[in-house]
Structure formats: structure tokens, C-alpha cells
Design goal:
Elements (H helix, E strand, L loop, with lengths): L4 H15 L6 H7 L3 H6 L9 H22 L5 H12 L1 H10 L10 H5 L6 H19 L1 H18 L2 H4 L3 H11 L6 E8 L6 E8 L2 E8 L2 H27 L1
Antiparallel strand pairs: 1-2, 2-3
Helix pairs in contact: 2-8, 4-5, 4-8, 4-9, 6-8, 8-9, 11-12
Length: 247
């Protein structure tokens, strides 16, 4: 725990420099770094912990990420947008962001919490990142807070891949086709070759009597999933042409 208020103020200035931001209210930044355990050890204090800012930051972070992936991936169905957002704002990812910014070293906490590894605790790091977002939002406004978030998350957002993020490509393909008013896919087994202990299954996906994609794998279900992923990529790129042709 930081004992000297002067030293802690210097630390906050260091954090401002690290973030590239000058706070209008340094107390907001201090609150964003203040773990509830400090207040538990100082019951008469009028200081506030980061919990309210954490609530605000959590809500705003989710909104900014949701808006960005909605714009960037116009063909993602609702279910996949939800999965992508959850992937980006989950606690373990926020912990990584906090570590990248070295927020743990700037936290103010009670002696017991610090002794028990509070500066490196995953839940604390995720919480302090969200509280920092909340503090930036209140101190500098929505535009500044949005830019702060997107600067950190842009690489991950750009790296989102429809073939990597889908847990069930067959379900996602069905949702995609239904959303665009197209017939459901037909999975055709083209061949099953090789000995019984090492068979290879070749699956072709047909939509509206048109072959769209195919894949081969050692398990039939795996081949269907891989073919569905390939079909999604094809359909994303050609959806408007196919809609015109099939209607």
C-alpha cells in the first residue's frame, strides 16, 4: 500500500503520462485506482472505491465494442455478434489490458489485499480497467473514452475471424441463411474413402440447388462444420449476387 499521499500523487501523474491523458479531476483517476479494501481498513473515510466507476465503465465498454463490431462485420448474425462481444470484454481479456497498462502498480488498496497478491489478482485487474474507462468517460467525455477503448481493442477487433469465432458453424450458417430469406443448406456426402480406421469424408453444401462449398475430414461432423465455415465465407462475399439470382 502506498503510504505517502505525495508519493501517490506523483504516481497518478506518472499514470497520466503513461496513458497520454491529463485529467481535469485527478480525484476521478485516484478513485478509479482505489480498491474497496482500502475503505474497509479506513471505515471513517469519505473516499470512494472504484466500484461505481467499474459499473459505468463496464456498461460503456460493452456498448463501444458492440457498436464497433456491428459496423465492422455487417454480415455477422446476432448470435455471432454476441459471441464476439463476449470474447472481447470477458474478464481474462480485460486483465490483459490492465497488465499492458500496468494498472496493478498504480492501485491503492488495503494492506491485507496487497499482502495476498491483490495487485496481480485477475478480478482486480479486470475491475480496475473498467473503472479507468468509467473515469475517462466522466472526465473527458464519450469521444475520448471511445478512442481510448478502440485504440486498445482495434487489433483484436480486426483479428476477429468468422471461421475462428464460430463455435457451431452449421447453426450459424442456418441463422445466416434464414436472416437473408434463403433456403436452408443441404449437406451431401460426396464420398467416404479409405479403410474403416482411417476414413475420409467429403461433404458438399448445397443451397437452393447450388453447390456452395465442400470440405474433407476424418469425421463426418467435422467435415460438415468445415464446409459450413467455408460456405459462410463464400456467402458473405456473394450474398447480394446470390439473392438476386435465387429470387
Amino acid at each position: 500500500m502506498i503510504n505517502s499521499q505525495q508519493t501517490y500523487s506523483a504516481n497518478l501523474s506518472k499514470l497520466e503520462a503513461s496513458l497520454g491523458k491529463k485529467f481535469h479531476s485527478i480525484e476521478l483517476l485516484a478513485q478509479a485506482m482505489r480498491h474497496p479494501s482500502l475503505l474497509n481498513e479506513q471505515p471513517k473515510t469519505e473516499l470512494q472505491s472504484y466500484e461505481r466507476l467499474e459499473f459505468l465503465g463496464d456498461s460503456f465498454l460493452g456498448w463501444v465494442i458492440a457498436k464497433e463490431i456491428y459496423k465492422k462485420y455487417p454480415n455477422y448474425p446476432e448470435g455471432e455478434l454476441t459471441k464476439a462481444r463476449a470474447l472481447l470484454v470477458k474478464g481474462s481479456n480485460l486483465q490483459k489490458m490492465a497488465k499492458y497498462l500496468d494498472l496493478g502498480s498504480f492501485m491503492e488498496m488495503g494492506h491485507g489485499e496487497e499482502t495476498n497478491g491483490g495487485r496481480d489478482r485477475s478480478s482486480n485487474l479486470a475491475a480496475v480497467f473498467e473503472s479507468l474507462v468509467g473515469a475517462i468517460l466522466l472526465d473527458q467525455g464519450e469521444e475520448a473514452a471511445s478512442k481510448f477503448i478502440l485504440k486498445l481493442f482495434s487489433g483484436q477487433i480486426n483479428a476477429l475471424s468468422i471461421t475462428e469465432s464460430f463455435n457451431d458453424a452449421k447453426s450459424t450458417l442456418q441463422e445466416f441463411l434464414q436472416k437473408h430469406g434463403l433456403p436452408l443448406p443441404l449437406y451431401k456426402l460426396i464420398s467416404a474413402t479409405g479403410p474403416s480406421h482411417a476414413k475420409l469424408f467429403k461433404i458438399e453444401i448445397v443451397v437452393n440447388d447450388t453447390p456452395v462449398a465442400e470440405a474433407t475430414a476424418s469425421k463426418k461432423n467435422t467435415a460438415e462444420q468445415q464446409a459450413a465455415k467455408a460456405a459462410l465465407l463464400v456467402l458473405q462475399n456473394q450474398i447480394h449476387d446470390l439473392q438476386s439470382r435465387w429470387r
